[in-house]
Design brief:
This protein is an alpha/beta fold and 771 residues long. It has 24 helices and 23 strands. Helix 16 runs parallel beside helix 17.
Length: 771
């Protein structure tokens, strides 16, 4: 028995030695601790290769407490976790010791429902922690770099756009003032150069935003056909300037309302069409929008821009979409630009989960195509059914390509379209059709006198409606004279031909009112609106531009140079609109807006505030809206963009134009320039004195209800206005004469106020007129 006991003890010792050797060879630390009878925590075991390196082995710390092994601070830190584990909970924590970081797990051992011992393990995570810290540091540096890039872009945008706003804004105003032919040409050259510079700046800022990861899509519902036709209208002047034909076709099977980023689609198309025009010297530019992959919810829409330009050499294909790359990079290259346009297009298309590609042949032209998925916008009513279209149309056009374009637009509408090459062919075709199914519409681009041979055929009950195609929309003056020949046009269509306009005209040719290419082109009825506007702007040039542009619209705003002045004005006036610069001294636009919104809580009135800022980043717009602003106008803005904002926030406003016959003045004072100028100055002084006197006498006639004096003064004053070429005053005085001042004196007085304002504008115009 004794031998057997000795053997058992020997085996137990061997097992313990092997276990200890195994524990000592472990990379991790394994330890155990328990409680003495007095509740003090003591170590029973502490083994592992790292434990030996740290000098924390069992033979050194067996039976010792936490405070005997570690410093007081570390012992206090560990005590909390050790006690929690002794309550029966598995505990994890991190512990730093001797320059290393350990991940610890405490697992309680339970016997008869009580914790008798806790086994702990510690893993050295120093390398992982170091890597995490390095990654965090790199992330922080990347975020800082991104923030600095964003701030740099914002600053550059502001610093560059502010003077550009002054240049373009003043040019807009200058071009609306009386200029002689040379001055007009010089001003247009400067404006074209300024717009080219702005396009380069926009490209660079756009590319920089993409590089900084600041470009995001703005998803909303939009009408694809309207978007394409708006772009067509924008690029028409540039194409016509090079005598290029411009065509656009949108597949009618594409849903009317789609959901996507219309702004980025517009930017991509404008870039591609702009390039096509730049690199094409003769021929045409054709835009087509079709469905690549039909889908009830997310069809793939394909946009293509084809030109008949110089083409691209095959050697340039691999670098075409690279930034800052030109096909011809030599110093003598013919075409300017940054070489960023196609790179930006590719980035935008990829953001929209699409693809972009091209085909090209030198001296034959290029076709750029991009395809993107667009959602079909839900909850939009079906478009109203268009009126019945004529079944047979005769085209008398100089261009077979234009006929093909019209034919394609009408191809899906069961409309028969025939083309005549000349007037003789048109006569033959019409004579043949009259015997059976006559043509109901004639579409032509020839003049009235050229149609005279057709007159015998085009009269009587079978006379078709005639649509005249113009390279530019005809003026009302031109249309009034179209009775000189026995044939007259029923309607007009402007180039480039748009699907919506053509279909509208064909469907409404029976309407007498339809005399133009599209209903929204009719001149709005004149309105007389009095709005109070505040312009808060510290930059003197920008302030003067906005003030002058508003005055051109018949609005006379107040001007504040900073936020403090703006608040002072607002305390004394009830404004209908505030144009608020964001960067102003003493108090910026954001803080000023917040204070305005806070003060509005007491009276409940909300005045629209439009931000004026040279910062073009999307987050700048969000900052404006967060501050309480209602809208955003990015500098440099054009006269038309300002009008658009005003129409949005001031219902019923109408831009007013001074109608004046400058040729009349030129004819009156031909001859010696100096003598003509002196005579002119003497005349306008007399004209102004007579007008002031007439206004006084008219007001007296209204007060006395003297019809005879009222009519006599108007007649005399109107003659003087007609003599000098003041068309707008002649029209207003004619309208005034129709009012019976004895029966409607209030209305007569109101009209006199309008005439007085117009007198002021005419006088200012005449004083600035260059003969």
């Amino acid at each position: 028995m004794k031998n057997r006991s000795n053997l058992s003890d020997a085996m137990s010792a061997q097992i313990q030695d092997k276990m200890r050797q195994t524990l000592q060879n472990l990379q991790n630390v394994v330890f155990t601790y328990t409680k003495r009878e007095d509740g003090t925590l003591i170590y029973n075991l502490y083994e592992g290769r790292i434990a030996e390196e740290l000098g924390l082995t069992t033979d050194r710390i067996y039976g010792k407490t936490l405070h005997e092994v570690f410093t007081a601070e570390k012992a206090d830190y560990l005590t909390h976790f050790y006690n929690e584990a002794f309550k029966g909970t598995t505990v994890t924590y991190e512990f730093e010791y001797a320059g290393r970081i350990f991940y610890n797990v405490l697992s309680p051992i339970v016997a008869d429902g009580e914790v008798v011992e806790v086994v702990g393990s510690a893993i050295d995570i120093s390398d992982r922690k170091k890597m995490e810290l390095e990654l965090a540091k790199a992330r922080d540096q990347a975020l800082l770099s991104s923030r600095l890039k964003s701030e740099f872009l914002s600053t550059m945008s502001h610093e560059i756009r502010t003077p550009m706003n002054g240049i373009i804004g003043m040019l807009d105003l200058l071009l609306q003032s009386p200029l002689n032919a040379d001055q007009q040409r010089y001003a247009n050259i400067i404006k074209n150069s300024a717009n080219s510079l702005l396009a380069i700046i926009n490209d660079i800022l756009d590319f920089s935003k993409m590089e900084a990861g600041k470009t995001e899509l703005e998803i909303h519902d939009f009408q694809l056909l309207s978007l394409v036709e708006d772009i067509l209208e924008l690029m028409a002047a540039k194409a016509m300037g090079k005598q290029l034909s411009l065509y656009a076709y949108v597949d009618p099977s594409i849903p009317a309302v789609l959901r996507g980023d219309s702004g980025r689609i517009r930017q991509t198309l404008l870039n591609l069409i702009g390039n096509a025009i730049k690199f094409t010297n003769q021929g045409e530019i054709a835009i087509r929008v079709t469905v690549e992959t039909p889908h009830p919810r997310t069809p793939i829409i394909t946009f293509s821009v084809r030109d008949t330009g110089i083409g691209i050499p095959e050697s340039a294909f691999p670098r075409l979409f690279q930034p800052f790359t030109q096909i011809d990079g030599s110093a003598s290259r013919q075409f300017g630009g940054t070489g960023l346009g196609l790179s930006i297009c590719k980035h935008i298309v990829q953001m929209m989960e699409g693809t972009i590609d091209f085909e090209s042949e030198v001296d034959k032209g290029s076709t750029f195509t991009f395809s993107i998925p667009l959602e079909v916008a839900p909850d939009h009513p079906e478009p109203a059914r268009s009126p019945a279209l004529p079944k047979r149309i005769l085209c008398l056009l100089k261009s077979q390509r234009e006929f093909a374009h019209i034919q394609e637009i009408l191809s899906h509408l069961d409309v028969s379209c025939v083309c005549a090459a000349n007037v003789a062919d048109a006569c033959s075709l019409y004579t043949e059709s009259a015997q059976g199914d006559p043509f109901q519409v004639l579409i032509t681009d020839v003049e009235e006198y050229e149609l005279l041979p057709l007159y015998p055929n085009l009269k009587g009950s079978l006379k078709p409606k005639i649509i005249k195609i113009h390279s530019s929309f005809p003026s009302m003056h031109e249309k009034k004279q179209s009775g000189a020949y026995p044939l007259s046009f029923d309607s007009y269509l402007s180039r480039p031909i748009k699907q919506s306009q053509l279909l509208y005209l064909l469907g409404h040719l029976q309407d007498r009112e339809v005399q133009q290419s599209f209903p929204h082109l009719t001149e709005p009825a004149p309105g007389n609106y009095s709005y109070q506007i505040l312009v808060a702007e510290d930059n003197e040039v920008n302030a003067e531009i906005v003030m002058l542009q508003l005055q051109q619209l018949g609005l006379y705003p107040h001007h504040a140079k900073n936020g403090i002045e703006a608040l002072s004005f607002i305390a004394r006036h009830n404004y209908d609109l505030i144009l608020m610069d964001c960067q102003m001294p003493e108090m910026n636009g954001f803080e000023t807006t917040r204070r305005i919104r806070h003060s509005e809580l007491s009276h409940g009135r909300h005045v629209p505030i439009v931000a004026l800022t040279a910062n073009a980043m999307r987050e700048d717009r969000e900052l404006c809206l967060e501050a309480g602003m209602d809208d955003y106008l990015s500098k440099p803005f054009t006269y038309e963009q300002l009008q658009s904002i005003l129409k949005k926030w001031l219902p019923g406003i109408r831009p007013t134009k001074l109608l004046f016959d400058k040729d009349k003045v030129t004819q009156l004072f031909r001859g010696d320039r100096q003598e003509g100028k002196q005579k002119w100055l003497a005349l306008i002084q007399t004209f102004e004195k007579q007008n002031h006197k007439a206004l006084t006498e008219l007001k007296e006639a209204v007060a006395k209800r003297d019809r005879q004096a009222f009519s006599s003064i108007i007649h005399s004053t109107r003659s003087g206005c007609a003599f000098i070429g003041a068309i707008s005053l002649v029209e207003l005085l004619t309208q005034l004469e129709e009012i019976d001042c004895a029966v409607r004196p209030e209305e007569a007085s109101a009209r006199l106020s309008t005439i007085q304002e117009e007198f002021g504008k005419v006088h200012a115009y005449l004083r600035g007129l260059q003969l």
